[in-house]
Structures are given as C-alpha cells and as structure tokens.
Amino acid sequence: MLMNQLFTTAYLMGLVMARPDLDLEQRSDSVIEGYGALEMFDVINFDFLSTGDAPDMYTIFAAKKDGCFGAIHASSQCTPQKTNHNIIARNRIDSSEKIMQVPILAGTYGGDQEGSGSQFYTTQLESLWELVAATLEYEVYFDENFDFAKGGKLPGMHGGDRTCSGGHKATGSDCFSTRLMWRENGDGEAYLYLPMSLQRNSFCNKCSGYSAGTTCDEMTHCSMNRASFSFRKGQWNKIKMQVWMNTDGNQDGFWNLYHNDRLVMSENSLGYRIDKSVPLSGMYFSTFFGGGSSDYAPVYDTQIDFKGFRLTAGIV
C-alpha cells in the first residue's frame, strides 16, 4: 500500500512518467534522461557495517529468498547447501570506505558449487503499478592480479518469475533478465535472457555462440556486443543500465548500458514481454565464473568487490 501511494505521488509530481508516444528514432539519450525518477534503494557503500561482517541481503536489499546462493538472508542461508562467503571489506583504493566483497574459490564455476560466488534477486519495482522504466547502477572492482579466465557473470535487472537463467527459454509471459559478462582479458558483453521468439531477426543476428542459420525461435538467450567495452583492473568500473519495457505486442523496448559514464550499448527494438503480466521487478545480483564447464574456473582463490548500488524507478 505504501509503495503504491509513493508511486501515485511520484506520478502526479512527474517523477515516474508514462511512456511517451515517440518514434524509435526520437528516443535519443537526451530525451530519455529528461524524465524524473523515484529511488528504490541507494547503497553507495557499506560503512554502516563492520569489516568482516557478513552482509544480510534481506536487511540491505530486501532480497527474495528463492534464487539465492552464497549469501545471508535474514540470518539463514539462501540455500542450505551453500554457505555465505560475502564479507564487508575495506575499499582497496580508499581505505576509509567499506565495500561488499565476494570471494570466489579456485576451481569453482557456475552457481551450484560451494564458494563459487553469490546471487540474489530484489523485487521492489513490482510494487509500482505498471512501471515501464528503471535504472540500475553499481560499481565493480577487479584487483590488479585478477584472472578473467574465460568469463563470468555480473549483475543486471530482471522481471517476472525469477527463472530467466541457466538455459531457460523465456516465453514472453514468464520472465526476462539483463545481466552482463566479463570475458577473456576483461572484455565486456551483454548477457540477456529475453523471449527470443519475440525479437527481430536483426537483433538475433547479433547473438554469439550459435551456429549459422540458428533462428530466433531456437535461441534461449543472447550474448552480444563482446568487447564493446572492457572492465579495467585496479580501478572501480561504474555500470549504469537502463530498461524501458515494450508496449503490448510491439518490439519497442530499449536497453542502454553505460560503462564509466560512456554509452557502450544501446538496443531500441526489444520485446521483453507479451503483455503487462510480466513486470519490471528489480536487481538480479549475480556473480560467478562461468559458463558451465571447468575451463571457466579460476586457478586460484580470488574476489570481486562491489559498491555504489542504486535502483531507480524511471530513467536517470
């Protein structure tokens, strides 16, 4: 009830806007960024906790318990067989600041192994009636000795029933997710679970990892635009991701990605869903090596640092 009242107030104040009737070519970044927004959470750092603490994802992010691993959820593990490894640590560039560190054990990959990383979902955006747009921001740090190996996952946004990963084929009436991946040498790419049967051929042609002639209907997800930017070691990488949902029955949704304040990807003809039964839900925090084979695994224990989390209803 409170969230609905907040949304109504924000809507009347012009903070969360209904979708404008714009042609795709008119939706430039300057037009998009002209709309206001309603902040859902803002975890710039973890200075409110002590170094060595295990951060509680329910308390901090109101995370859902299903779909979690390797994290604390209201004093119990997200999944019983995988203990928490996330800790609060000092920012390695500015020791006065505390961040969240995700340790990853040597030889681990995917989301099923002990010590392979961490994952959880938030759903704050579902409380905002018919919300059409949202922005996720965070910062990620890889130390100077980090071995990118063959690649791994990084957070994004999601909508619907929290099943759009692990080879699930979205239908348009269940879910979507918009994570990122790092690849060899830190090359960045989009890792999108969308209802591929709803996409245009021109979009599907950009998806890597499929044999020539694979149709949209045959795809489960889209890895695309590899090396359009690079994650840099020894410094904070600032990520901003914008999602604007499609209107019913149309391929007019968009997805923008900024790296260190530079627009590096932009797609403006996407279908996230068939109709409004699939909502914009929230953040999909997900980080681990893989891929689903051992050649993705790191050869030594490592860690990935995070801070600067901000989820906003609207485009900022």
Order of helices and strands: HHEHEEEEEEEEEEHEEEEEE
Major sheet? 8 strands, antiparallel
Number of domains: 1
How would you classify the helix and strand content by structural class? mainly beta
**Radius of gyration, in angstroms, nearest whole number:** 19 Å
> What's the N-to-C terminus distance?
25 Å
Give the low-pLDDT segments: 1-34
Q: What percentage of amino acids are in beta strands?
A: 35-45%
Tally of extended strands?
Answer: 17
CATH topology: Jelly Rolls
CATH class: Mainly Beta
Signal peptide: 1-18
Organism: Sphaeroforma arctica JP610
Protein name: Polysaccharide lyase 14 domain-containing protein
Pfam families: Polysacc_lyase_14
Description of the molecule:
- The chain has 316 residues and is mainly beta.
- 8% of the residues lie in helices and 40% in strands.
- It is built from four helices and 17 strands.
- The protein has helices at 2-12, 29-32, 57-61, 201-204, and strands at residues 37-43, 63-69, 72-73, 76-77, 87-90, 98-104, 117-122, 133-141, 151-160, 175-183, 187-193, 222-230, 236-244, 253-259, 262-270, 280-289, 302-314.
- The longest helix has 11 residues, at 2-12.
- The chain starts with a helix and ends with a strand.
